[in-house]
Amino acid sequence: MYAAWQWGKQHRFTLADVGYAIFFFPLIVGGMAISVVASERGEWGLGYLPSQLYEVSPVAAMLVGAQLILVIPCLVAAAILVRRRRPELLLASSLLLIVLFGNVWAAPVALYSYAAWFTNRWRPLALWAAAHSAALAFVYTMWEPFLIIPLGVTFILLPLFFGMWVGTRRQLVENLRERAERLEREQHLRAETAIAAERTRIAREMHDVVAHRVSLMVLHAGGLEVSAPDERTAEIAELIRTTGREALSELREILGVLRNGEAAPTAPQPVLDDVGSLIDAACAAGANVDLTTTGTPRPLNAQVERTAYRVVQEALTNAVKHAPGAEIDVRIDYGRTALTVTVVNGPATVKVANPVPDSGYGLIGLRERLALVGGTFVAGPLADGGWWVRAIIPAAPTETPRPAEEIS
């Protein structure tokens, strides 16, 4: 049984082929039995061999009859199994059955299979159909002439036309499927082209507007640093110039990604150890920031540390921008299963004539970032006019804990 399965897998016959072989096998056996019985009555057909041998050896006659009735149908059934790969075997078998035995039961599946499964079928199919019709007419003219037309229509013409219809429909469906796939590929290409054009347009607009303005800011800050009347003004001008140059560098990288569609640069990503530089920058801008670390600091997953860094960065930026001169308290708590980041700022103590415009997407981006790591994010105003932000990030320990330290 396993060998038969392996043979079928190698020759790629399907359940439909097996079904056809099982269905037509008893019909072909019945046709062979009728041929042997008719020959015993003295009519035409190669089935006369058993009756001729019976007078010489009854055992030999029985063996020949069994081979005619059983072995030949088994060979035809095997040809049905490989009808898609070797259709000429089944066509030749069905033609020989008609010529030698008057058995027409293999002709329908042979003609239908060739007409349905082969594209270059018109001329060979016409030749095979003509050969089957001629054999049927020749045999049944000597046997039962009145059966020629009904047998020809039932066993040759109907399977032939039905197979041609099935084959034409299959080709049409395949052509439509191929066309749909081609259209889908073209649609993807058009979408990618449109995306690339839009990215180029965005990059051009950012370069013309943002990069130009930032460049002017850096140049003015450099001029102010050189001509500053006091040391404090020079320090602030240097901070503005340095921050502007860093912003221009990052902006150039983003513009390169937008224009060329390349991968983003793989620069080292910020982690919790870089929070100190954020606080130094905020203090240089005039803020008063206290950083407190509680719990047992330990190395965490890079995504967790990067998320915590972005929370502190966004909270400090908002506090410096919307509450200048306010006291800012940053607290990082290393819990057993979570890292909690809390940033609280008081009300503004300095009035700014032209406040920095707000995009309105900072807190939304933080909520989305926390949702990606399975954390929670809360933010809102305080009763005294201040603001607070809290992010709880799931964080399991990854390495040996390092000594705790508290920075204030």
UniProtKB/TrEMBL annotation:
EC top class, as a word: transferase
Highest taxon above the source species: Bacteria
GO CC terms, sorted: membrane
Domain named Signal transduction histidine kinase subgroup 3 dimerisation and phosphoacceptor: residues: 198-261
Keywords: ATP-binding, Coiled coil, Kinase, Membrane, Nucleotide-binding, Phosphoprotein, Transferase, Transmembrane, Transmembrane helix, Two-component regulatory system
Transmembrane residue ranges: 20-39, 59-82, 89-115, 147-167
InterPro entries: HATPase_C_sf, HATPase_dom, Sensor_HK_TwoCompSys, Sig_transdc_His_kin_sub3_dim/P
GO MF term set: ATP binding; phosphorelay sensor kinase activity; protein dimerization activity
CDD domains: HATPase_UhpB-NarQ-NarX-like
Residue ranges of coiled coil: 166-193
Reactions mediated catalytically: ATP + protein L-histidine = ADP + protein N-phospho-L-histidine
Annotated EC: 2.7.13.3
Protein name: histidine kinase
Native source species: Thermobifida fusca TM51
